[in-house]
Amino acid sequence: MPQTPAAAAVPAPPPGRPRIWVRLAVIGVLLVIAGGVGSRFVGGRGRPGEEFTLPAVAVRAELVARASLAIQSSYPGELIGEVSDLSPQVSGILAEVPVRIGDVVAQGQVVAVIDDVDLRNQLMEAKGQLGVADANRKRSQAELIGMAADHRRSDRLYQENLLSEQEFDRVVANLATAQATLAASHAQVEQAGARVALLEEQHANARLLAPFGGTVAARYLDRGVLVQPGTPILRLVEAAPLLAQFHVPERDLGAVRPGVTLSVQTQGTGARLFAGTVLRVSGEVSRNDRTVTVEAGLNESDALLRPGMYAEVVVRVQSIEDTLVVPGSAILERVAMDGTRHEGVFVVRDDTAAWVPVVVEGRSGNLAAIEAPIESGDLVLTLGHTELENGGRINVVGSAAPQQNMQESTS
Fold it and tell me: Helix, strand, or coil here: 226?
């Protein structure tokens, strides 16, 4: 019986092997048929011939507004204040430290006392030497008065030729000696007085006084310790309103200058904001990070504020007038095929999302000023739109008026 062409095309399987290749061919044909048939029943209600369509994505939209937007910049920084390690200027045994950590002290208050026995003895000796020098000075003054009177009498006698020249020269020499002795006595008194004053000052320095009002941050030593000049005993932090020190990029230097107002927030005080004013701007840009150091004074103080606290400083750097304002969440970034990045928003067009490229002029909080071919009153997507494509079907389930956004931006 002759073979048909189809039968002739099928080669005979190798002897002794199972017909696996036949099974694979059959399975492949069935998958192709199933895919073609199934594609006619996917989507909608699954009726034959119905086209496949993606479901609409639920999104939230907000209205575009045209308004003015104050652009604010945030800079990390820290709180600083007048901090001083207090140390004595004399040596001795630390006799008393009447304050401890957390105590509030006033300017001039005694915070430590040094037992300076040797210094007191030296002071008593110096006062005695001053008394002796003063007595010698008084005696020299009396001698000079006598010598001056003798000189006047001798001068009259010498003018009347009643006194020899030799005797008169002796009287003149005695007067000069008395004058020199009195001058030396004056110098000795001044020297002794200066030593007494120095020792009295050192004795006064044995009582360590607070140079300013503040809070004790650390107590390094206790009573009974031998201290030397320069040995730190206490650390004192100024109680006056603190400073906020932060670093501003050189691009913002024109907006951050003395007199500019700002607000400061710390982790220790939560959402509370402290108003302040820029006081000083460094005259040099750091070569390490291209920033400028700025110091601002806080207008008020709080018991929770401490030097060294992390501070978030917010400064108004500019105001963009009559611009399109959208929520910051509406702006997305997409990467093109060539690797370039572009920012844009999705605008509601009927029941689809249209991708519109934008140029961001500035941001302030949850708002952004943009340039884009859209109008005030258009709806931009703000939630549920991150995975959308241009022309994707959407279902807007919520929207907000632009006035609410403007109130938030000015608050």
Answer: strand
Torsion of the alpha carbons at 54, 58, 63 and 64, rounded to the nearest 10:
-50
Residue 65 CA: distances (Å) to CA of 71, 325, 377, 403: 16, 5, 6, 8
Q: Name which of 296, 355, 395 is nearest 78 in CA terms.
A: 296
- Name residues of the chain where pLDDT drops below 70: 1-53, 399-411
Cβ 391 vs Cβ 353: under 8 Å: yes
Nearest to 382 by CA among 370, 393, 371, 398: 398
Contact 261, 299 (CB under 8 A): no
Local structure of 7: helix, strand or coil: helix
**DSSP, residue by residue, 123-169:** HHHHHHHHHHHHHHHHHHHHHHHHHHHHHHHHHHHHHTT-S-HHHHH
pLDDT per position as a tens digit, 282-340:
989 988 999 999 999 998 878 788 888 899 999 887 788 889 999 999 999 988 888 88
- Rounded to 10 degrees, what is the CA torsion of 248, 252, 258, 260? -110
28, 243, 285, 376 from 260: Cα distances, Å: 76, 14, 19, 32
Q: Is the pTM of this model over 0.85?
A: no
In the sheet that 214-219 helps form, which strands lie side by side, from edge to edge? 83-86, 234-238, 214-219, 104-105
- Separation of alpha carbons 351 and 254, rounded Å: 46
